[in-house]
Amino acid sequence: MILIKSLKQKLLNLKNDEENNNQAGRNSRFFFILILLLLSTFVACQSEEIPILTNSTSPSFTNSPLPTTTEEPNDQVEGITYLNEEILINGRNNNIHILTIDLSINNIKVVPYLSFDRIYGFETLSEMVFKNDAYAGITSGFFYMYGRPSGLVVNNGSLLSAGTGRFNSLIITKDHAYFETINTVIYVKTNSSEILTIDTINAPIEGAIQSALYNQYYGKTDRLDFPHTVIHLLDNTIMSIIKTDGPYDIPEEGVILCFRNLPAYTMLNQYDQLTLNIEPNFDFTINAYECSLMIVKDGINVAPDYDPWIGTLNQYDPRTCVGIDDSGKLVFIVVDGRQGEYSSGVTGKELADLCIDYGLLNVAMLDGGASAEMIVNKQIVNSLSYNQEERPLAGGFLIIVD
Protein backbone atom coordinates (compact mmCIF):
# COMPACT_ATOMS: atom_id res chain seq x y z
CA MET A 1 0.00 0.00 0.00
CA ILE A 2 2.85 2.40 0.88
CA LEU A 3 4.57 1.50 -2.41
CA ILE A 4 1.45 2.34 -4.47
CA LYS A 5 0.98 5.69 -2.70
CA SER A 6 4.61 6.61 -3.37
CA LEU A 7 4.23 5.72 -7.06
CA LYS A 8 1.07 7.83 -7.38
CA GLN A 9 2.80 10.82 -5.81
CA LYS A 10 5.74 10.60 -8.18
CA LEU A 11 3.43 10.40 -11.18
CA LEU A 12 1.46 13.41 -9.94
CA ASN A 13 4.63 15.46 -9.54
CA LEU A 14 5.78 14.45 -12.97
CA LYS A 15 2.46 15.47 -14.49
CA ASN A 16 2.65 18.93 -12.89
CA ASP A 17 6.19 19.44 -14.23
CA GLU A 18 5.06 18.64 -17.73
CA GLU A 19 2.09 21.05 -17.89
CA ASN A 20 4.07 23.59 -19.92
CA ASN A 21 5.30 21.02 -22.44
CA ASN A 22 3.46 20.01 -25.56
CA GLN A 23 1.05 17.07 -25.36
CA ALA A 24 3.18 14.64 -27.38
CA GLY A 25 6.35 15.22 -25.39
CA ARG A 26 4.50 14.96 -22.13
CA ASN A 27 2.91 11.63 -22.93
CA SER A 28 6.20 10.19 -24.16
CA ARG A 29 8.10 11.07 -20.99
CA PHE A 30 5.21 10.06 -18.77
CA PHE A 31 5.01 6.51 -20.04
CA PHE A 32 8.77 6.10 -20.20
CA ILE A 33 9.24 7.01 -16.52
CA LEU A 34 6.20 4.93 -15.56
CA ILE A 35 7.86 1.85 -17.05
CA LEU A 36 11.12 2.56 -15.17
CA LEU A 37 9.30 2.94 -11.85
CA LEU A 38 7.39 -0.30 -12.30
CA LEU A 39 10.58 -2.17 -13.14
CA SER A 40 12.39 -0.81 -10.07
CA THR A 41 9.44 -1.75 -7.85
CA PHE A 42 9.45 -5.32 -9.18
CA VAL A 43 13.19 -5.70 -8.51
CA ALA A 44 12.84 -4.34 -4.94
CA CYS A 45 10.05 -6.79 -4.11
CA GLN A 46 12.12 -9.71 -5.38
CA SER A 47 15.12 -8.83 -3.17
CA GLU A 48 13.25 -7.90 0.04
CA GLU A 49 11.55 -10.37 2.39
CA ILE A 50 7.88 -9.52 2.89
CA PRO A 51 6.33 -10.82 6.13
CA ILE A 52 3.45 -13.26 5.83
CA LEU A 53 0.52 -12.34 8.06
CA THR A 54 -1.73 -15.04 9.48
CA ASN A 55 -4.92 -15.06 11.50
CA SER A 56 -3.60 -17.61 13.99
CA THR A 57 -4.64 -17.00 17.58
CA SER A 58 -2.54 -19.78 19.12
CA PRO A 59 -0.86 -18.49 22.31
CA SER A 60 2.91 -18.06 22.28
CA PHE A 61 4.75 -18.93 25.51
CA THR A 62 8.04 -17.11 25.94
CA ASN A 63 10.83 -19.41 27.18
CA SER A 64 8.34 -22.27 27.55
CA PRO A 65 9.23 -25.78 26.37
CA LEU A 66 5.69 -27.04 27.07
CA PRO A 67 2.52 -26.81 24.98
CA THR A 68 -0.89 -25.70 26.19
CA THR A 69 -4.02 -27.75 25.89
CA THR A 70 -7.76 -27.20 25.94
CA GLU A 71 -8.42 -30.89 26.56
CA GLU A 72 -7.94 -33.02 29.62
CA PRO A 73 -4.40 -34.49 29.66
CA ASN A 74 -4.06 -38.06 28.47
CA ASP A 75 -2.35 -40.84 30.39
CA GLN A 76 -3.46 -39.76 33.84
CA VAL A 77 -1.59 -41.48 36.65
CA GLU A 78 -3.21 -43.65 39.30
CA GLY A 79 -3.66 -41.51 42.39
CA ILE A 80 -3.66 -38.21 40.47
CA THR A 81 -6.89 -36.73 39.12
CA TYR A 82 -7.20 -33.56 37.05
CA LEU A 83 -10.59 -31.88 36.66
CA ASN A 84 -11.46 -28.79 34.59
CA GLU A 85 -14.90 -27.29 35.07
CA GLU A 86 -16.68 -24.18 33.83
CA ILE A 87 -19.06 -22.92 36.49
CA LEU A 88 -21.10 -19.85 37.40
CA ILE A 89 -20.13 -18.06 40.60
CA ASN A 90 -22.54 -15.32 41.60
CA GLY A 91 -23.59 -14.96 37.96
CA ARG A 92 -20.05 -14.80 36.54
CA ASN A 93 -18.43 -17.48 34.43
CA ASN A 94 -15.26 -19.07 35.84
CA ASN A 95 -12.89 -21.80 34.71
CA ILE A 96 -11.65 -24.02 37.54
CA HIS A 97 -8.68 -26.41 37.46
CA ILE A 98 -8.45 -28.99 40.24
CA LEU A 99 -5.57 -31.41 40.80
CA THR A 100 -6.18 -34.09 43.45
CA ILE A 101 -3.31 -36.23 44.71
CA ASP A 102 -3.52 -39.39 46.79
CA LEU A 103 -0.29 -39.38 48.80
CA SER A 104 -0.86 -42.96 49.95
CA ILE A 105 0.23 -44.12 46.48
CA ASN A 106 3.90 -44.98 46.99
CA ASN A 107 5.28 -43.75 43.66
CA ILE A 108 3.84 -40.20 43.97
CA LYS A 109 5.81 -37.41 45.62
CA VAL A 110 4.94 -33.71 46.04
CA VAL A 111 7.95 -31.46 46.64
CA PRO A 112 8.43 -27.69 46.88
CA TYR A 113 11.06 -26.66 44.35
CA LEU A 114 13.12 -23.45 44.23
CA SER A 115 14.23 -22.12 40.85
CA PHE A 116 17.65 -23.46 39.86
CA ASP A 117 17.49 -25.44 43.14
CA ARG A 118 18.76 -22.33 44.93
CA ILE A 119 17.42 -19.63 47.24
CA TYR A 120 17.67 -16.87 44.63
CA GLY A 121 16.56 -16.83 41.00
CA PHE A 122 13.57 -17.16 38.68
CA GLU A 123 12.41 -19.75 36.14
CA THR A 124 9.12 -20.44 34.42
CA LEU A 125 7.07 -23.26 35.89
CA SER A 126 7.35 -25.23 32.67
CA GLU A 127 11.15 -25.02 32.86
CA MET A 128 11.02 -26.41 36.40
CA VAL A 129 8.72 -29.25 35.29
CA PHE A 130 10.76 -30.02 32.19
CA LYS A 131 14.20 -30.26 33.76
CA ASN A 132 12.97 -32.25 36.78
CA ASP A 133 10.89 -34.60 34.62
CA ALA A 134 7.88 -33.84 36.82
CA TYR A 135 4.40 -35.04 35.92
CA ALA A 136 2.77 -31.81 37.09
CA GLY A 137 3.55 -28.40 38.56
CA ILE A 138 1.62 -25.66 40.34
CA THR A 139 2.44 -22.12 41.40
CA SER A 140 3.60 -22.10 45.02
CA GLY A 141 3.74 -19.23 47.48
CA PHE A 142 5.46 -15.93 48.01
CA PHE A 143 8.99 -14.58 47.78
CA TYR A 144 11.07 -11.56 48.70
CA MET A 145 13.25 -9.64 46.26
CA TYR A 146 15.43 -11.75 43.95
CA GLY A 147 13.45 -14.89 44.80
CA ARG A 148 14.17 -15.52 48.49
CA PRO A 149 11.30 -17.58 50.02
CA SER A 150 8.93 -15.84 52.40
CA GLY A 151 8.98 -18.65 54.95
CA LEU A 152 9.55 -22.32 55.59
CA VAL A 153 10.85 -24.52 52.77
CA VAL A 154 11.87 -28.12 53.45
CA ASN A 155 12.97 -30.31 50.55
CA ASN A 156 13.35 -34.02 51.31
CA GLY A 157 14.16 -33.24 54.94
CA SER A 158 16.67 -30.46 54.15
CA LEU A 159 15.84 -27.06 55.65
CA LEU A 160 16.24 -24.44 52.92
CA SER A 161 14.40 -21.54 54.55
CA ALA A 162 13.19 -20.94 58.11
CA GLY A 163 9.57 -20.96 59.22
CA THR A 164 8.33 -17.58 60.43
CA GLY A 165 5.61 -18.80 62.78
CA ARG A 166 3.20 -16.31 61.18
CA PHE A 167 1.39 -18.54 58.68
CA ASN A 168 0.45 -22.19 58.36
CA SER A 169 2.89 -24.42 56.53
CA LEU A 170 1.82 -27.34 54.39
CA ILE A 171 3.62 -30.42 55.76
CA ILE A 172 3.79 -33.32 53.29
CA THR A 173 4.77 -36.76 54.60
CA LYS A 174 5.21 -39.92 52.57
CA ASP A 175 1.51 -40.80 52.87
CA HIS A 176 -0.48 -37.75 53.98
CA ALA A 177 -0.43 -33.96 54.43
CA TYR A 178 -1.47 -31.49 57.12
CA PHE A 179 -1.13 -27.80 58.06
CA GLU A 180 0.93 -26.56 61.00
CA THR A 181 2.43 -23.25 62.09
CA ILE A 182 6.22 -23.66 62.19
CA ASN A 183 8.66 -21.28 63.89
CA THR A 184 12.16 -22.55 63.16
CA VAL A 185 14.65 -22.40 66.05
CA ILE A 186 18.39 -22.80 65.35
CA TYR A 187 21.18 -22.80 67.93
CA VAL A 188 24.57 -24.33 68.67
CA LYS A 189 25.89 -25.61 71.97
CA THR A 190 29.60 -25.26 72.78
CA ASN A 191 31.83 -27.60 74.77
CA SER A 192 31.26 -25.34 77.77
CA SER A 193 27.46 -25.70 77.31
CA GLU A 194 27.15 -22.12 76.11
CA ILE A 195 24.19 -21.60 73.77
CA LEU A 196 24.68 -19.46 70.65
CA THR A 197 21.43 -18.55 68.95
CA ILE A 198 21.32 -18.51 65.15
CA ASP A 199 18.59 -16.11 64.03
CA THR A 200 17.86 -17.54 60.59
CA ILE A 201 19.00 -19.75 57.71
CA ASN A 202 19.83 -18.70 54.14
CA ALA A 203 18.67 -15.11 54.64
CA PRO A 204 20.51 -11.78 54.89
CA ILE A 205 21.82 -10.51 58.21
CA GLU A 206 19.96 -7.22 58.41
CA GLY A 207 17.75 -5.29 60.78
CA ALA A 208 17.27 -7.21 64.02
CA ILE A 209 18.92 -10.32 62.58
CA GLN A 210 22.44 -10.71 63.97
CA SER A 211 23.42 -14.22 62.89
CA ALA A 212 22.65 -16.75 60.18
CA LEU A 213 23.43 -20.25 58.95
CA TYR A 214 24.27 -20.66 55.28
CA ASN A 215 24.53 -23.79 53.15
CA GLN A 216 25.03 -24.51 49.44
CA TYR A 217 21.41 -23.65 48.64
CA TYR A 218 22.20 -19.99 49.34
CA GLY A 219 24.76 -19.62 46.58
CA LYS A 220 28.52 -19.20 46.32
CA THR A 221 29.00 -16.68 49.15
CA ASP A 222 27.24 -15.37 52.25
CA ARG A 223 26.69 -12.05 50.38
CA LEU A 224 27.59 -10.03 53.50
CA ASP A 225 29.48 -6.81 52.83
CA PHE A 226 30.28 -5.76 56.42
CA PRO A 227 32.69 -7.05 59.10
CA HIS A 228 31.55 -10.38 60.52
CA THR A 229 32.84 -13.65 61.99
CA VAL A 230 32.51 -16.87 60.01
CA ILE A 231 32.64 -20.36 61.55
CA HIS A 232 32.95 -23.27 59.11
CA LEU A 233 31.21 -26.24 60.70
CA LEU A 234 31.55 -29.79 59.33
CA ASP A 235 29.96 -32.72 61.17
CA ASN A 236 29.72 -30.57 64.34
CA THR A 237 33.45 -29.82 64.20
CA ILE A 238 34.84 -26.29 63.77
CA MET A 239 37.08 -26.37 60.70
CA SER A 240 37.97 -22.66 60.79
CA ILE A 241 37.11 -19.34 62.41
CA ILE A 242 37.60 -16.31 60.18
CA LYS A 243 36.96 -12.59 60.57
CA THR A 244 36.22 -10.92 57.27
CA ASP A 245 35.04 -7.54 55.97
CA GLY A 246 33.17 -8.85 52.93
CA PRO A 247 31.46 -11.85 51.33
CA TYR A 248 32.82 -15.24 52.36
CA ASP A 249 32.76 -18.36 50.17
CA ILE A 250 30.36 -21.07 51.29
CA PRO A 251 32.33 -24.37 51.37
CA GLU A 252 31.17 -27.37 49.37
CA GLU A 253 30.97 -29.46 52.54
CA GLY A 254 29.35 -28.43 55.79
CA VAL A 255 27.80 -25.08 56.63
CA ILE A 256 28.96 -21.67 57.81
CA LEU A 257 27.70 -19.77 60.83
CA CYS A 258 27.97 -16.00 60.45
CA PHE A 259 27.81 -13.48 63.31
CA ARG A 260 27.70 -9.73 63.03
CA ASN A 261 29.15 -9.55 66.55
CA LEU A 262 30.25 -12.81 68.15
CA PRO A 263 30.10 -12.36 71.94
CA ALA A 264 33.55 -11.43 73.30
CA TYR A 265 33.31 -13.98 76.10
CA THR A 266 32.79 -16.85 73.64
CA MET A 267 35.99 -18.90 73.47
CA LEU A 268 36.11 -21.07 70.36
CA ASN A 269 39.02 -22.76 68.63
CA GLN A 270 39.61 -24.82 65.54
CA TYR A 271 38.49 -28.46 65.96
CA ASP A 272 36.25 -27.64 68.89
CA GLN A 273 32.93 -29.44 68.89
CA LEU A 274 29.73 -27.45 68.33
CA THR A 275 26.38 -29.24 68.46
CA LEU A 276 24.05 -27.78 65.83
CA ASN A 277 20.35 -27.99 66.67
CA ILE A 278 17.45 -27.21 64.34
CA GLU A 279 13.90 -27.43 65.69
CA PRO A 280 11.67 -28.89 64.51
CA ASN A 281 13.89 -31.45 62.85
CA PHE A 282 12.46 -33.10 59.72
CA ASP A 283 13.51 -36.50 58.41
CA PHE A 284 14.24 -37.16 54.74
CA THR A 285 10.64 -38.16 54.00
CA ILE A 286 9.26 -34.70 54.82
CA ASN A 287 8.60 -31.81 52.45
CA ALA A 288 7.13 -28.56 53.70
CA TYR A 289 6.18 -25.11 52.47
CA GLU A 290 4.89 -22.02 54.28
CA CYS A 291 1.73 -20.69 52.65
CA SER A 292 -0.22 -17.53 53.36
CA LEU A 293 -3.47 -17.15 55.30
CA MET A 294 -5.96 -19.97 55.71
CA ILE A 295 -9.29 -19.43 53.96
CA VAL A 296 -10.96 -22.66 55.14
CA LYS A 297 -10.53 -24.20 58.59
CA ASP A 298 -12.31 -27.41 59.56
CA GLY A 299 -14.75 -26.92 56.70
CA ILE A 300 -15.65 -23.33 57.65
CA ASN A 301 -15.10 -20.27 55.43
CA VAL A 302 -12.60 -18.04 57.30
CA ALA A 303 -11.35 -16.05 54.29
CA PRO A 304 -10.38 -12.50 55.32
CA ASP A 305 -10.74 -9.33 53.27
CA TYR A 306 -6.98 -8.79 53.18
CA ASP A 307 -3.92 -11.03 52.94
CA PRO A 308 -0.45 -9.69 53.92
CA TRP A 309 1.14 -11.20 50.80
CA ILE A 310 -1.67 -10.92 48.28
CA GLY A 311 -3.36 -7.68 49.32
CA THR A 312 -7.11 -7.29 49.02
CA LEU A 313 -9.07 -10.49 48.54
CA ASN A 314 -12.27 -8.70 47.55
CA GLN A 315 -11.40 -8.36 43.85
CA TYR A 316 -12.10 -10.83 41.05
CA ASP A 317 -8.65 -12.22 40.31
CA PRO A 318 -6.94 -15.44 39.24
CA ARG A 319 -6.36 -17.49 42.39
CA THR A 320 -4.26 -20.44 43.52
CA CYS A 321 -4.72 -22.41 46.73
CA VAL A 322 -3.85 -25.74 48.32
CA GLY A 323 -6.04 -27.81 50.59
CA ILE A 324 -6.78 -31.19 52.10
CA ASP A 325 -10.14 -32.81 51.39
CA ASP A 326 -12.38 -34.89 53.63
CA SER A 327 -10.66 -38.10 52.50
CA GLY A 328 -7.15 -36.80 53.31
CA LYS A 329 -6.11 -36.18 49.70
CA LEU A 330 -3.99 -33.16 48.75
CA VAL A 331 -5.78 -30.76 46.40
CA PHE A 332 -4.45 -27.84 44.34
CA ILE A 333 -6.90 -25.41 42.74
CA VAL A 334 -6.27 -22.73 40.12
CA VAL A 335 -9.07 -20.38 39.08
CA ASP A 336 -8.52 -18.48 35.83
CA GLY A 337 -9.33 -14.78 35.92
CA ARG A 338 -9.15 -11.35 34.29
CA GLN A 339 -10.38 -12.86 31.02
CA GLY A 340 -13.86 -11.45 30.52
CA GLU A 341 -16.64 -13.91 29.77
CA TYR A 342 -14.22 -16.86 29.66
CA SER A 343 -13.31 -16.54 33.36
CA SER A 344 -13.66 -13.51 35.61
CA GLY A 345 -11.73 -14.72 38.64
CA VAL A 346 -12.95 -14.91 42.24
CA THR A 347 -12.68 -13.19 45.61
CA GLY A 348 -11.13 -14.89 48.61
CA LYS A 349 -14.51 -15.68 50.13
CA GLU A 350 -15.81 -17.07 46.82
CA LEU A 351 -12.71 -19.26 46.55
CA ALA A 352 -13.27 -20.56 50.09
CA ASP A 353 -16.90 -21.40 49.30
CA LEU A 354 -15.78 -23.16 46.13
CA CYS A 355 -13.26 -25.23 48.09
CA ILE A 356 -15.90 -26.24 50.64
CA ASP A 357 -18.25 -27.26 47.81
CA TYR A 358 -15.50 -29.59 46.54
CA GLY A 359 -15.13 -31.19 49.98
CA LEU A 360 -11.97 -29.46 51.22
CA LEU A 361 -11.64 -29.16 54.99
CA ASN A 362 -8.55 -26.95 55.29
CA VAL A 363 -7.23 -24.58 52.61
CA ALA A 364 -4.39 -22.03 52.43
CA MET A 365 -3.73 -19.31 49.86
CA LEU A 366 -0.87 -19.52 47.37
CA ASP A 367 0.34 -16.98 44.82
CA GLY A 368 -2.26 -16.09 42.18
CA GLY A 369 -2.77 -13.24 39.73
CA ALA A 370 -0.54 -13.44 36.66
CA SER A 371 1.48 -16.17 38.43
CA ALA A 372 -1.47 -18.58 38.70
CA GLU A 373 -0.51 -21.65 36.66
CA MET A 374 -1.07 -25.39 36.55
CA ILE A 375 0.77 -27.95 34.43
CA VAL A 376 -0.48 -31.54 34.14
CA ASN A 377 1.24 -34.29 32.15
CA LYS A 378 3.70 -31.66 30.90
CA GLN A 379 0.93 -29.48 29.44
CA ILE A 380 -0.17 -26.03 30.65
CA VAL A 381 -3.85 -26.66 31.35
CA ASN A 382 -5.06 -23.26 32.55
CA SER A 383 -5.36 -20.00 30.63
CA LEU A 384 -2.61 -17.62 31.77
CA SER A 385 -3.99 -14.19 32.52
CA TYR A 386 -1.20 -11.95 31.20
CA ASN A 387 -0.94 -12.16 27.40
CA GLN A 388 -1.01 -15.96 27.70
CA GLU A 389 2.62 -15.80 28.87
CA GLU A 390 4.27 -17.61 31.75
CA ARG A 391 5.57 -15.41 34.52
CA PRO A 392 9.06 -16.29 35.84
CA LEU A 393 8.68 -17.72 39.34
CA ALA A 394 11.03 -18.26 42.25
CA GLY A 395 9.55 -21.68 42.93
CA GLY A 396 6.66 -24.07 42.59
CA PHE A 397 5.19 -27.38 43.70
CA LEU A 398 6.30 -30.33 41.59
CA ILE A 399 4.50 -33.67 41.45
CA ILE A 400 7.04 -36.42 40.77
CA VAL A 401 5.92 -39.88 39.66
CA ASP A 402 8.58 -42.60 39.96
Work out the strand percent: 25-35%
> How many H/I helices?
4
Number of individual domains: 2
In helices, the fraction of residues equals 10-25%
Strand order of the largest sheet: 1-2-23-22-24-18-19
Mean pLDDT: 86
Instruction: Please tell me how large the radius of gyration is.
Output: 31 Å
The count of strands amounts to: 27
Task: Give the end-to-end Cα distance, rounded to a whole number of Å.
Answer: 59 Å
Low-confidence stretches: 1-68
Largest sheet data: 7 strands, antiparallel
Give the helix/strand class.
Answer: alpha+beta
So what's the overall shape? elongated
Keywords:
7-stranded antiparallel beta sheet, single chain, disordered N terminus, alpha+beta, 402 residues
Can you give a write-up of this model?
The chain is an alpha+beta fold. It folds into 2 domains: 80-180 and 285-401, no CATH class; 185-279, no CATH class. It contains 4 helices and 27 strands. The protein has helices at residues 2-17, 23-47, 125-131, 348-357, and strands at residues 80-89, 92-101, 108-114, 136-139, 153-155, 158-161, 164-172, 177-183, 185-189, 195-198, 200-201, 211-214, 228-234, 237-244, 255-259, 275-279, 287-290, 294-297, 300-301, 306-307, 311-312, 319-325, 330-335, 360-366, 374-376, 379-380, 395-401. A 7-stranded antiparallel beta sheet has the order 1-2-23-22-24-18-19, with helices on one face. A 5-stranded antiparallel beta sheet has the order 3-27-4-25-26, covered by helices on one side. Strands 6-5-17-7-8 form a 5-stranded antiparallel beta sheet, with no helix packed on it. The radius of gyration is 31 Å and the shape is elongated. The relative contact order is 0.19. The model is unreliable at 1-68 (pLDDT under 50).
